[in-house]
Amino acid sequence: MKRSMCLLIGVLCLFLVFFYISVQNGFDWERNVSQRTQIEKRVTDDVSDEILSDESTFKEETKLWEDEKPAYVKAYMDFLLHADIDQGHDFPIRGYYLFDLNFDDIPELGVLHDSWGSMGGYFTYYYFDGNGITAVLNDRGEPVRISNYTQILADFEQKKVYLLKEMYLLQGNENGTYGYVREIKNKNQYPCVYDILNLQVDQESDLRSRFGTQYECEDGFLSDSDLEACLITQIYMEKEWIDISSGEYLKRKRELIPEENSFVDLREGDLNYLGANYDDNGDLLYTDVRMGKDEIEQLFERYVQSLENK
Which positions ≥6 away from 112 have C-beta within 8 Å? Predict the structure, then answer.
């Protein structure tokens, strides 16, 4: 009897041991499953977050790609592709410049009109007004025309820009018998051209024939001493022109522009010169040369490069 009782207790102990092991294994299995599930969930969440992040990045990059061009670039592109620039002008359009005339980090557009003759040509200028492209005006509210022989002199430290045109030809057409000093200043936040000094060749002077012989080429600029001998000059004060002497003109010019090399000439940058249009017979067509999208892109690329070189 005693032996049977001991055997029964032994069997019961074994049963309890196996039961404990089974239960413990069950707990371990459930814990492992739970841990594995949590790990899988973390991995899935991480992958999902990464995918969402990639999608978000892709969307942002796509949006950036779509919106990478500033508003003024889009406005200029539309203007150059579709606008009737300077409607009714006398000389055809041959090329374009981009430069910042008022130091606001948004370039202005210079449009070159060229006669393909001894009269040379002129530039008209445009700026971005926040919505579209508008002509640059003078202080009297008129669209500005500037000789293609004008220097655009910029002082980056003082943030000043002057337009300087002086005599280069004392015989021939009228384009070589006048000049000016003008300043570009902001008016209502946008560039405006202000008259400062005006000068003309004294065509009745006996000196004219001598200068005409001395300066035969159209781009032969005169020195200050040569100018002083043959100029009729004026200063623009209180909205009217007042006569001043040639010496006074030169003095005032040098007060504004101390030395020939004291300013950077913005016209030294590349002109997007498109040349002329010819018909099938090789004759010059008196029509504007228009820009395509690729040429406009190149114009802005050159402008960005010009900023990097400053």
Answer: 93, 94, 95, 96, 97, 121, 122, 123, 148, 271, 273
CB 146 within 8 A of CB 125: yes
Please give the biggest Cα pair distance in the chain: 157
Tens of pLDDT, residues 231-278 = 778 888 777 888 888 888 888 888 998 876 788 888 766 678 787 778
pTM for this prediction: 0.70
Q: Which residue has the tokens 């200028």?
A: 125
- Structural contact between residues 136 and 145, judged by C-beta atoms closer than 8 angstroms: no
E-assigned strand segments in the chain: 93-99, 108-114, 121-128, 133-135, 137-138, 145-147, 151-155, 160-165, 178-187, 190-201, 231-237, 240-244, 264-265, 272-273, 277-278, 284-285
Residue ranges in the chain modelled with pLDDT below 70: 1-67, 117-119, 167-177, 201-223, 226, 229-230, 260, 268-270, 309-310
Tokens 């003759």 belong to which residue?
A: 117
**DSSP helix/strand/coil, 207:** helix
- Give the pair of three-digit tokens for residue 254: 């040098």
Note the pLDDT tens digit of each residue in 157-175: 899 999 998 765 444 455 5
